[in-house]
């Protein structure tokens, strides 16, 4: 992820996944990649841009993407030494690791505001010359830089890829995915979402003490009344809802806008071969704040096979089936019918593993209102307002 060392989490050890691939006779080689995180991977500002230019570097703020790119070059060059095929490489990512350059990007104006706020928190004066500001920033201890995330309402959504005109040429969004151009070497794609992605933000939404009238009033800044009531209707938000009912519904809306919608648009508009969609509905069986939820990233508990010995028997079987599906995809085999066939989606849970057409309610949530321009941008603005997150643009927020 953008801020946590997910690559070092023991649960992401790929050895069990590789063992599964060997067991079913379709061996896979897995190379896990660590890249720079947080400020080290994504910080961008005019100071850093000019400093980069002085040293002959192009662009700014996308150091994590540079690391990922270099890792892919390394795999391409050396994987044959491990028995791999340099012409059959599959990139797998989760959360920001999968979306940095596709969806989760920010304009440099936003990154500059984040940078200014970061320096202020660290006691670095904005009145200093740029080279002195950078010199002081480089002298800050690593642990103090990490601790400074708190000043950003951290860690999301501030540390993201930057539209610098070099690595990321334009700010992408769902409305433009229909015209997105991909490298011709990419033949197929698989993408998925978890049932309760929005639980990630429940802790930010609850303190806002939203009521339906307050929501409607806030949405008026972005949507006309027809658009407002279309969104509320799609997520079954009514005047009768109280706080304990609104928080999960608003969380679901945010999860739909930030995760489900982009993933749907990706597979729905994919033109380079087959596209596969999955939906994780099995819940986290372990104690903790997300226990009993199909939360963001819970699919990784299944994919890596690491916790199979701790899961209930039916969950272990589901994890192995999911692992087999991914192994088949890596080997060029169709693990289930692609999305282009009747909006087909593979459901992992809540009771069993099986494919079916995308539910009408979810399909409806993913459809823009007829006649509405900038539908996704409007929904995204509402989602960020509900979470009380600020994204800066030229001339203000």
TrEMBL record:
SUPFAM superfamilies: alpha/beta-Hydrolases. Residues 27-102, 111-329 form the Carboxylesterase type B domain. PANTHER family: CARBOXYLESTERASE. This is Carboxylesterase type B domain-containing protein. Gene3D superfamilies: alpha/beta hydrolase. InterPro entries: AB_hydrolase_fold (IPR029058), CarbesteraseB (IPR002018), Type-B_Carboxylest/Lipase (IPR050309). It comes from the Eukaryota. It holds the Pfam family COesterase.
